[in-house]
Specification:
By secondary structure, the protein is an alpha+beta fold. It contains five helices and five strands; from the N terminus they run αααααβββββ. A five-stranded mixed barrel has the order 1-2-3-5-4. Helix 2 packs antiparallel against helix 3 and helix 3 packs across helix 4. The relative contact order is 0.10.
Length: about 150
């Protein structure tokens, strides 16, 4: 432990390695970006041995934030292809579905049954029991048209 206190740069690099290993064990929690920040802090601290702890932490925070920003940009520019791109977008998955009006749509607003639940619906006046097609959504309200 005394050796780590004598060489804080080594402590930062060990922290970076531990975070990277945790990322490998529990993928998807994005510790790799924090590990990169710790590695940068470690290298800077090894290059400048008398670097104050306050500045080491500042380098760590700035480097971690930069790594997150770079990683986020990279992920946005290079989306991962998916067999089901709408997997986590329930409303988008509903577009095109035919549903039943359970509460008449009057003055543009009513309710429809989707599966075993009911959703607010916007669309032209439609009586209860009629079938409508989901064409979009606004917030938690579905836009519908006669089927």
């Amino acid at each position: 432990m005394h050796a780590l206190l004598a060489m804080p740069g080594l402590a930062w690099l060990i922290l970076a390695a531990v975070l990277a290993i945790v990322e490998l064990i529990v993928p998807g929690i994005f510790l790799v970006f924090v590990a990169a920040g710790a590695a940068v802090a470690g290298v800077v601290t090894l290059i400048i041995p008398d670097f104050a702890l306050t500045f080491q932490v500042a380098v760590f925070v700035i480097a971690s934030a930069a790594a997150v920003a770079i990683g986020r940009k990279w992920y946005l520019d290079n989306p991962v292809p998916s067999a089901d791109p709408l997997l986590n977008d329930r409303i988008a998955r509903l577009i095109g579905e035919i549903v039943i009006v359970v509460e008449p749509i009057e003055a543009g607003s009513g309710r429809v049954r989707v599966g075993d639940g009911e959703w607010l619906a916007n669309g032209p006046d439609t009586p209860a029991g009629a079938k409508v097609r989901i064409i979009g959504a606004r917030g938690l309200s579905l836009d519908v048209e006669p089927a």
